[in-house]
Design a protein that fits this description.
CATH topology: Arc Repressor Mutant, subunit A
Number of domains: 1
Number of helices: 6
Strand content: 5-15%
Order of helices and strands: HHHEEHHH
Distance between the termini: 30 Å
CATH class: Mainly Alpha
């Protein structure tokens, strides 16, 4: 089952970058994520621990620790503390069946290749890239819909 933690951590960094001169409480950031402030603070703690975010207790002014063009999706992925690969092979297959016996090994080979390719791409995409795309999409939606949310 998919995990959306990476998406949420990227969301937080992009939101902070796009509102870098605003007062940003965990409540405000949580409202953009459609979650609760407590969970948002925990996620921000992950980003802080990964040296991607700087916060000051009691002050609503989180800042990116580096320029957004220097923070990659891979950096954020590593902040999720991945303890397992993106794709996991089911090892609990029948050893009595020829397919069940060999499929974990065969799939593992392909999954490792997919993991390597994905991580290489993650190293190329930055928070600045994503923030630029978000800004363009917002502008597009604002032109086409005057009621578009401004959170």
């Amino acid at each position: 089952m998919a995990n959306n933690r990476l998406s949420d951590l990227i969301h937080i960094l992009v939101y902070i970058e796009m509102h870098n001169s605003d007062k940003l409480t965990s409540e405000l950031i949580a409202s953009s994520l459609n979650t609760n402030p407590s969970l948002t603070r925990r996620m921000m703690g992950q980003l802080r621990k990964a040296n991607l975010l700087e916060t000051t207790q009691g002050a609503a002014c989180p800042k990116l620790k580096r320029d957004p063009s220097e923070i990659t999706i891979f950096d954020v992925y590593m902040a999720t503390c991945p303890d397992s690969p993106l794709l996991k092979v089911d090892q609990n297959t029948s050893k009595e069946c020829q397919v069940g016996h060999v499929i974990p090994t065969v799939l593992n080979k392909y999954y490792l290749e997919i993991q390597s390719t994905t991580e290489a791409k993650m190293r190329k995409v930055t928070i600045a890239d994503i923030a630029d795309d978000v800004k363009m999409d917002i502008e597009h939606h604002q032109k086409n819909n005057s009621n578009f949310a401004k959170i």
